[in-house]
Amino acid sequence: MIQIFPDWRDLPPEARGASVALGNFDGVHRGHLQVIAAAHAARPEAPLAVLTFEPHPREFFRPDDPPFRLTSSAMRARLLAARGVRILYELRFDRIFSDLSAEAFIGEVLAGGIGARHLACGPDFAFGHRRGGDVALLAARAEALGIGLSVVPPLADGEGRISSSRIRRLLRDGYPERASALLGRLFAIEGVVAHGDERGRKLGFPTANLALGRYLEPARGVYAVRVALRDGRIFGGVANLGRRPTLGGDPETRLEAHLFDFEENLYGETIAVGLLAYLREERKFPDLTALKTQIAADAAAARAALAQVALDLPSLDRDLAAFA
Q1: Average pLDDT in the 199-213 region?
Q2: pTM assigned to the model
């Protein structure tokens, strides 16, 4: 279990004295896990904690930007819990908090509020009003306050640094497999199955329809997917992510997932759809007959992709099952 605290003030004694990883942790990718591991290694006897912000500061300062999140708040918490984090300081990011100086963030929040025994962060961690605090200031003040600090070098592969920004680019460009390799899991969109117009059912391919909400919009098109239900079952499937141009077009992008070998009603259920492989771009077809023929071909291609995937599906499925 993970305890979640939206404020650093008046914490119970058991929520203080932790070894704390600092950052936004959107995606909880392999680089983030390295920071968390450093926090634990420095003080293995202390509770392991993460300090992050909700909403994401970018959402607060630029609310009109297109959605960009790789994880919802709830999904992030579950992923952190699965990796041994026991305390999540998910601090409420508002105007008052954004005006807090870097010195006050260290003294009032990290030292006085949560009573951190050790801190871990990446070399570019910035904090305080107008991001006025950096790792050099954090190191100097932490030492003066008797708090340990681990500055963790960025994790990189042959193509560069592993970061949330890089993962977002890969998803927008239609490379979910490469994004999964950096995440260490499938990128998944979680949501409540909503009623649609049942066109998929009429075409012989009933779908579970999800709104994207604040999630990043990956490349529009057709994907082979893994779908996790709340009861822990996982099904392969094929999904369309787009605006259905053949059916007149939708004002917002939606995710429509057809689960293979599944005939139950999912309306109102929370599910998670993990994008495994990008099959083709979104296209407009001349009529419903052509669309139905293409959907059948897409389903066959998705089954083949699921059978041939080189990723470690059992491991990926364990994380996917933790979402729903």
Answers
A1: 80
A2: 0.91
